[in-house]
């Protein structure tokens, strides 16, 4: 438990203004209107009184260090509450308590308090009464119904408005409201009419407080946005503040000259237990190497890249799940950096949130990186985990007695469970150790390509082994009790496959394998306890003294293979090798090139690695509808076409056409038509892929009160983006159900946030493809209350009009044959087996899905005019596109290839 010995933030602000006033700023959800007005008058009176108290006093605004640290503390507390599904609903400076820690006698630590108005955000809260203190209340919380009762449209974004008001007061020592003399109603009206911290307010703020970082003023603008959809999440605010804090501190305390655009390196898996995590060791060793005047001792050769880092500077992006752990790591790294006598490199340490265990988090991470940076030098894929359950002590004793060095190097007595899957119904170890990294690497390829040389560095292990792995029947090794070893084996195969692919494409990207050998880390700490963990470390030193080159023990030493490859990339590429950290018996480290495990096991390791890469690409797209196309790609083996994953949807597909990255695509009919109607000329329809409609599930919260679609009329529905299929189909549903009150929409960006919104009560439901939602319905995370079918064929084929007609026609003809073969295999059950194994779905679920899917019965190179026109008319009704005259079928269909019926 923490105790506050420094009063409140409100009192500190008043003290900085030169006043010594103690006031009761509390208000409650349980207050009557009269009591709230009286409370407002008391606060207003105090504000008026202090205007005339004593002589004129100088305002002592917060210095940037104070402002950022205090606000980060507040954001940290709010992010924790929101991560637990709790809304505070009464954020204000009076509810921010301060504590002076013994270790910090210049800036107090801020803590949130007074949770009397807090609400666990599941289901729908009662919509009556006041929430919080008037001056800090969001406009949507003050809306009234036709009877004059407060609707109290509160959500997590309401807290973000209040957080913005706190930041406003911390910057300006005032609020944007006028001092209405005892008039509660006028203040209410001013809040409702407040335009937000708009461009005009931003420009005035720059002149009023030119010393405040522009990023903080921009953040304030986002927090005080009238549109709740535009307000950031608490986690996003925390990341922005931490990033700004680091930049400000570097400017204030470490005056460096940035000579050119800095090199950026993304590093995963920062761990601080015993400061021994491999990710932390890599970061520490990079700083150690880059902050020397002399050439790094552990550089095998002179490195051009090393010199570039010295010339340009370095941005090191630390990616992990916990903001607090990341900040602790950054603090430790900065202390180490500052301990160096001579500073030769402009170094910036940045934290970005990333949970490799979910696809959404991996994609979100990559999206943020693309928004913030124009290029990327390297991605270091070092995060790793296992489903360890304990030790087989009998086997441990046997191996220690018969071969003690091997027992401490390649133990055969670690126990692992099987069957563990992630929230995405993907093998958990598979996703955490490999697939999450792969998604990010694929998403960031465009940034890596901007550098003259860039790298994806994959961390393998001494324990990498094939064991009982069956790539065809258990690709994600969910059934295996050796998932950790297999994950490292598959990592090597994937790295080789990617390197071959990049060389074929003449890419500037290189895929390289490293491993740290034996490092004393926290991965098995929970199963050993502190005593056995310590004894394990001592035994490692014993093995090293006996001559084992593999027991580096320290993560700092184990990182030598990674940093050496990173800073000498030109000497460590184009070879199917893995680079291992090793040392002599005195702990002096060096790097050794070794054959990969895949090379020694697989007779045709190149072909095997290519197959692994293809299966990862198939999973990356994760579209079960594309099964015939995937089978055709396996048969073609890259001779006439290659697949380019576009997992972000139609927007990414259209951009890929515009950027000349793809020639042909299979995608949702309505989205492709909308793209052309809005002006896209880079593609036209050349065929119909799936004739059956798409089955959209209507999903609501697990504990939400809605039991049928009719209950949703007039409510707020979650959508992924404006004009998306989820919005189009919600409007279609409203039209077909003849709702008198049209739905309102709240943009939630992605599938994960849509699921969150129905459970925290900010939306009533969302619509998504039925089969994709099924795993989440089965686990009870969300609830299915109905479905809606598209009134058009769901999938179509488009191609660049400039592409050679014979090439497109041949591709579509070959795909037509693949579709017929897939349809024929339904009877034998082979089609079901293929989908289940490729995408890790339950066979019974696949059987149900496949019953409702009808691929084009006629030849694929047929497009029906009525389908195009009726779909476009529906998109007009749904306000996705506008109609200007009659539809010209030639604008949408390439008649040279497709037959229009």
Automatic annotation (TrEMBL):
* Gene Ontology biological-process annotations: steroid biosynthetic process
What is a single molecular function from GO for this protein? ATP binding
* Lineage: superkingdom: Eukaryota
Which terms in the GO cellular component ontology are assigned? endoplasmic reticulum membrane; lipid droplet; mitochondrial outer membrane
A Pfam family found in this protein is Pkinase
Domain (Protein kinase): residue spans on this chain: 1-247
Query: Does Membrane count among this protein's keywords?
Result: no
Keyword Lipid metabolism belongs to the record: yes
Keywords, ordered alphabetically: Lipid biosynthesis, Lipid metabolism, NADP, Oxidoreductase, Steroid biosynthesis
* Annotated family: Belongs to the short-chain dehydrogenases/reductases (SDR) family. ERG27 subfamily.
Q: What is this protein called?
A: NAD(P)-binding protein
**What organism is listed for this UniProt entry?**
Wallemia mellicola
Organism classification? Eukaryota, Fungi, Dikarya, Basidiomycota, Wallemiomycotina
